[in-house]
């Protein structure tokens, strides 16, 4: 079944998942990370781009308090905004790591560069960039909130 997902103009095959939102392809376009709500539980899930192999990698039921907006890297790791409004990652094996843990209540919209080595995100209406392990957190704009990375991890578009 193909569904049009909220806020996105592309169609993605997500089987019969309910409440699927905010899809993000990994760089090789074979897998999609997305946010879903199933029976009141909010998940970050991954699925093959043909609609097979759905796997929940983080969810509210396990106490990980997932919020939203996953981005997916080629190394099978999804970055997302957690309920504490920090940037966290989750692997396909379910290991969740908080990368920012700053106490700043407005970090959101993570995005990987195509190589999966850098993550951009918003913090207090500024664009920040960090290494994919959470080190090297650096502000790169003042006031910009939309961003895109080139393969080397440099911001190529900030509006």
Question: Short summary of the structure?
Answer:
The protein has strands at residues 2-4, 11-13, 21-25, 31-38, 41-48, 55-59, 66-72, 77-82, 87-91, 96-98, 107-112, 118-123, 126-131, 138-139, 147-149, 155-158. By secondary structure, it is mainly β.
Write the layout of secondary structure elements.
Blueprint: E1 2-4, E2 11-13, E3 21-25, E4 31-38, E5 41-48, E6 55-59, E7 66-72, E8 77-82, E9 87-91, E10 96-98, E11 107-112, E12 118-123, E13 126-131, E14 138-139, E15 147-149, E16 155-158
For this entry, give a set of tags.
159 residues; mainly beta; Neuraminidase; four-stranded antiparallel sheet; 0% helix; globular; disordered N terminus
Q: What does it look like?
A:
By secondary structure, this protein is an all-beta fold. The protein has a single domain, classed as TolB, C-terminal domain (Neuraminidase, 6 Propeller), CATH 2.120.10.30. 0% of the residues lie in helices and 50% in strands. The chain has no helices and 16 strands. It has strands at residues 2-4, 11-13, 21-25, 31-38, 41-48, 55-59, 66-72, 77-82, 87-91, 96-98, 107-112, 118-123, 126-131, 138-139, 147-149, 155-158. A four-stranded antiparallel sheet has the order 3-4-5-6, with no helix packed on it. A hairpin with a 6-residue loop joins strand 1 and strand 2. The protein starts with a strand and ends with a strand.
Helix content: under 10%
| Largest sheet: spatial strand order | 3-4-5-6
**Total helix count?**
0
Output the CATH topology.
Answer: Neuraminidase
Taking pLDDT < 50 over at least 5 consecutive residues as the criterion, the unreliable ranges are 1-17
The H-and-E topology, N to C, reads as: EEEEEEEEEEEEEEEE
The CATH architecture comes to 6 Propeller
* CATH C-level label: Mainly Beta
């Amino acid at each position: 079944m193909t569904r049009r997902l909220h806020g996105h103009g592309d169609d993605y095959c997500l089987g019969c998942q309910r409440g699927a939102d905010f899809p993000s392809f990994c760089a090789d376009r074979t897998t999609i990370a997305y946010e879903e709500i199933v029976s009141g539980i909010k998940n970050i899930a991954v699925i093959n781009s043909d609609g097979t192999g759905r796997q929940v990698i983080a969810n509210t039921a396990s106490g990980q308090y997932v919020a939203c907006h996953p981005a997916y890297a080629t190394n099978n790791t999804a970055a997302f905004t957690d309920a504490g409004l920090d940037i966290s990652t989750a692997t396909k094996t379910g290991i969740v790591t908080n990368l920012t843990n700053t106490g700043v209540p407005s970090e959101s919209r993570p995005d990987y560069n195509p190589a999966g080595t850098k993550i951009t995100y918003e913090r207090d209406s500024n664009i920040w960039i960090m290494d994919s392990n959470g080190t090297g957190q650096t502000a790169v704009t003042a006031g910009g909130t939309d961003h895109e990375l080139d393969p080397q991890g440099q911001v190529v578009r900030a509006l």
